[in-house]
Amino acid sequence: MAYSSMSASAGVVDIMTQGSETVRSMSDILIEPKDCALILVDQQAGLAFGVGSADRQTLLNNVIAVARTATVFGLPIVASTSATKVYSGPLKPAVRAAIPDVVAIDRRNMNMWEDDVARGAIVSTGRRTLIFSGLLTEACVTFPVLSALAAGYEVYVVGDACGGLTPVSHDLALRRMEAAGARPTSWIQVLLELQRDWTRHATYDGARAIVEAHGGGYGIGLAYARDMIKPT
Prior knowledge:
Elements: E1 2-8, E2 11-18, E3 21-24, H1 26-29, E4 36-41, H2 45-48, H3 56-72, E5 77-82, H4 93-98, E6 105-107, H5 116-124, E7 129-134, H6 137-150, E8 154-158, H7 167-179, E9 183-185, H8 187-195, H9 201-214, H10 216-228
Parallel strand pairs: 4-5, 4-7, 5-6, 7-8, 8-9
Antiparallel strand pairs: 1-2, 2-3
Helix pairs in contact: 3-8, 3-9, 6-7, 8-9, 9-10
């Protein structure tokens, strides 16, 4: 097996050549905290009223989980809201409590990429991998995702932390974004992908606490293992 490195637009990509096949390194195919920013779009109660693609409480749980994940792993967070005084209201209190230091950028249009301040906040993070969570999937998530892709960003859409008007329209919006190059994911996959190794002690306690609080049966199992399975 030969080993070499090559330059890429995002930096240096390690490759391994085995026979006629080139295998990309893990840092090239899995997300890394140093590359990512979380983009929260219109996580507002007024828009959540219209969500019919998922149970609203489950959706809120997932949004809080991905927001807490970004905090534990040190990802910059850009939050944007729309029509706060007209209909949608402010950032949901439970989301705001998870990211108290983040000030949401209010705007008028549906596409936050077309808002100079919101787009500027994203660009200023310096991160080229964007992770999106938002409402509503069909518009205020899809439009900036397509715009970011066109601008050359790598984009992940946390499907279970986005809400659409109906299951069908939510799914179609996800499919459209994926067809344009976005990568669908879930909040638990984002957390596990960023952690990857439970011996990474700097983020272990924070990541585990998120899973226990928001991970359903998986989290219950982790808590049980901690409390009941003792080393002999």
